[in-house]
Amino acid sequence: MTSDLVVHVARFGRALRRHGVPVGLSDAADGLSALTLIDVGDRDEVRRALRVSLKIQPRDAATFEALFARLWEGRIEVPAAPRDVEPFRRGTQLPPRGSRSSDRDVAVGDEPGYSPAAVLRRKPFDECTPQDLAAMERLMRQIALRLATRPSRRLVPTLAGRGTIDLRRSVRRALRSGGEFLSMARRTRAIERPRLVVLADTSGSMDPHARFLMAFVRAIKRVAPGTEVFAFNTALVRLRTLRRLDADVPEWSAGTRIGECLAEFADRYLDAHVDARTVVLILSDGLDRGDVEPLADAMRRIHARARRVLWLNPLAGDRRYEPTARAMAAALPYVDRLLPAHNLASLEHILWAFR
């Protein structure tokens, strides 16, 4: 996580300087320190922390806001590291004013530039080969590990020298030592272990994406063993193991009955596996010509019980996509976030949807 923050802060500082905002290396270092103390999944917290720590003046506020929006959306281009950010060992460069960028200009992840990992992150699943899947598995494990070890908003005492000062505990400690502050008590963010239930569509329309998404689910299961996984097409099946999907999932790549399958999940498994701490991930393109009433009712019940319901739809990776298919439209009122799931870069954004 720290290496990611270094990359992003270096990118942002370089972009601000190119647009005339005076941000020095010490300011960037302050920005990096500020981000380690907040929830980096909260857009407003990150924006406020950077605006204060980078000492943005009122005259530069509009430029800062515009560039921050591009940073958050991952639209700041990254060439080789320039000399003036060498202390960060990474850098960035914003295209000149008036130029236009595209998704292919973006490098996301631990290493900036056009690295093989950056190319894989942007490659659509329906264009990938089995060899690509093998290469992606390491990157999927990294994403899953970050998801499983994400800092929560809750602060807990820490013995390390980092974190925010706990004034109340510090005063109590000082009273025990005659009123002298020999050391300051600190708090840090607790690690939030995710409680997940995954409902994965393995119908024919999902076939170009399902194997990649299920590989991602396998990676999650390794770092969060309590994750419950269900697959559905024309029937619902609870997956105890994810090793032999073709054998374990009846009628893989067959038709789909989303409503009936989710209704069965709600009837048989909802009470036992979903509570106020559970995030439900539904992986589906939402294409179903069946009756939408069972789907709407099942989604209403799932949403009422879960902490969050996230629907990952490969079709949403197309900017022209609108959730107008009957099944998707019926489910949408009970979905907290509808997210794209067409490549690795889109899966990384799931991290920020868990707050």
Outline of the structure:
With 355 residues, the chain is α/β, with parallel strands linked by helices. The protein has helices at residues 2-18, 25-35, 43-53, 61-72, 116-122, 130-148, 167-176, 207-223, 245-248, 258-268, 270-273, 293-305, 326-331, 344-348; strands at residues 150-158, 164-165, 186-192, 195-201, 228-232, 236-239, 278-283, 308-313, 337-340.
Biggest β-sheet strands, sense, barrel: 6 strands, mixed
Name the CATH class of the largest domain: Alpha Beta
The class by helix and strand makeup works out as alpha/beta
CATH third-tier fold name of the largest domain: Rossmann fold
Describe the secondary structure blueprint for this structure.
Layout: H1 2-18, H2 25-35, H3 43-53, H4 61-72, H5 116-122, H6 130-148, E1 150-158, E2 164-165, H7 167-176, E3 186-192, E4 195-201, H8 207-223, E5 228-232, E6 236-239, H9 245-248, H10 258-268, H11 270-273, E7 278-283, H12 293-305, E8 308-313, H13 326-331, E9 337-340, H14 344-348
Parallel strand pairs: 4-5, 4-7, 7-8, 8-9
Antiparallel strand pairs: 1-3, 2-3, 5-6
Helix pairs in contact: 1-2, 1-4, 2-3, 6-8, 10-12
